[in-house]
Amino acid sequence: MSESHTIIIGGGIMGLSIAWRLAREGQRVTLLERGEVGQAASRVAAGMLAASAEVGYEEFELYALCRESLRRWPSFAKQIEADSGLQVDYRSNGTLIVAHDRDAAVALQRGYDFQKEQGYPVEWLTKAETLDVEPFLSPRIVASVRASEDHAVDNRMVLKGLRKAAESFGTDILEHCEVEHIDLSGTGVTVRAKDGRTAEGSTVVISAGPWSRQFSGIKAEYLPPVRPVKGQILELRMERPFELTHVIRGAKAYLVPRSDNRLIVGATSEEMGFDVRKTAGGVYSVLDGAWEMVPGIYDLELVSVDVGLRPGSRDHQPIVGFCEDRRVFIATGHYRHGVILSAVTATEAASSIISGNDSAVFEYFTPKRFQGEAS
Ligand SMILES: Cc1cc2nc3c(=O)[nH]c(=O)nc-3n(C[C@H](O)[C@H](O)[C@H](O)COP(=O)(O)OP(=O)(O)OC[C@H]3O[C@@H](n4cnc5c(N)ncnc54)[C@H](O)[C@@H]3O)c2cc1C
User: Fold this and answer.
1) How far is the CA of 311 from the centre of ligand 1 (A)?
2) Is there a single domain that holds both residue 274 and residue 329?
3) How far is the CA of 26 from the centre of ligand 1 (A)?
């Protein structure tokens, strides 16, 4: 029997967090990244840990998974900080889901009823109560829902922390190493990069975001059905007296304050293939939606515009678990929820790979649902 050794393809939040969890359990791990780790969607994301505000109200399983991950996040963040010595700006100030007009208030009420039914701790705030807690919101808003357990994190710091933590436990990270071929013909797994380098292990984790279908050598049905969903997002700089405490979400945009006065404003959702151009229309629509809720952003400095590609699966649910050939583990398709879901994905993926057992938490999200094995 060869020694267990996991080869991870892709160094986004999924690949890095699984590497860290495996390595801190004493497992041998090699992570191969096409560019530099932590530079794709995981860096561009807003960092919302929004179980309540983000998930649609028909998505029961996903909602439960997000809540489970949110429950794990405080200790996940503390462990990253302890293992790396870096702070990840975990903010527990909560989220305000804002209705900017009467139509939006009707939709907000429906969402609120669903969240209440699910036993989620949400609170209806009148216009006056809303303006009381966030004075920089527009006086035109109608009402809001406070989701006090929807938190936020600085995902860029999380990525730096994960890298440092994973390396401190011995993970080998190879950058500028683009994998193109996965060979399962022997007893283990051999992956080959474009430049001819190879890595051999006992398990391969495919966590290459929306590029997770682009490998030769393995059965086509193992390649997860993911596509890129483009998101344009902006960074503004908050200057006194302007201040936001909560994450603010509306129908057309969201605003996520960081402790260092950055304000992340997002995001478009565009079916544009692998196009990563920043467009005038994208910037306009994000600013317009945000300005409607928080007019004071008008005077803030625009620091940057970024583009990320969310890995969206065919049914918009994550794809996590072993393929029929249990040397292949998939961790992608997290779409709009990859940051929040990293805590539960990484911990469950690592324990599955170590034990060889499927995770009960991810039963509904198995890759086998696309491989003709599960209903
Ligand atoms: C604008 C925007 C805002 C978002 N906001 C939030 C949010 O607030 N909260 C939330 O939970 N989620 C959010 N998301 C979603 C979240 O960012 C993603 O779900 C998550 O980052 C996906 O992580 P990943 O590791 O699967 O993919 P990625 O971050 O895309 O990483 C995949 C990595 O694989 C590498 N790779 C690809 N092909 C190969 C290859 N052949 N060989 C080697 N390496 C390869 C890539 O270079 C990349 O580094 C947002 C996304 C966007 C775009």
Assistant:
1) 7
2) no
3) 26
Rounded to the nearest integer, the mean pLDDT of the chain is 95
Residues 6+ apart with CB under 8 A from 39: none
Alpha helices in 127-221 (DSSP H): 127-133, 155-168
C-alpha distances in Å from residue 294, one per residue of 37, 54, 137, 233: 34, 19, 5, 16
- Output the residue whose Cα is nearest ligand 1's atom 4: 45
- Judge if the beta carbon of residue 249 lies within 6 A of ligand 1: no
Residue 216 belongs to domain with CATH number: 3.50.50.60
**With 90 as the cut, is the pLDDT of residue 227 above it?**
yes
Is residue 69 domain-resident? Answer: no
Q: How many domains does the chain have?
A: 2
pTM over 0.90: yes
**Closest residue CA from atom 33 of ligand 1:** 10
In a domain, 207, yes or no: yes
Please give the number of the atom of ligand 1 that sits closest to the Cα of 41. 29
Residue 157 C-alpha to ligand 1 middle, in angstroms? Answer: 15
Taking residues 41-65, what's their average pLDDT?
A: 87
In whole angstroms, what is the distance from residue 70 CA to residue 217 CA? 37
Domain identity same for 304 and 204: no
Using one digit for the tens of pLDDT, what is the confidence trace for 105-136? 999 999 899 888 888 889 999 999 999 999 99
Cα distance between residue 263 and residue 233, in whole Å: 11
Where do runs of H (alpha helix) occur along 45-101? Answer: 51-54, 60-84
Assigned domain for 67 exists? no
Distance from residue 114's CA to the centre of ligand 1 (Å): 29
Residues 330 and 354 in one domain: yes
Q: What is the CATH number of the domain that holds 136?
A: 3.30.9.10
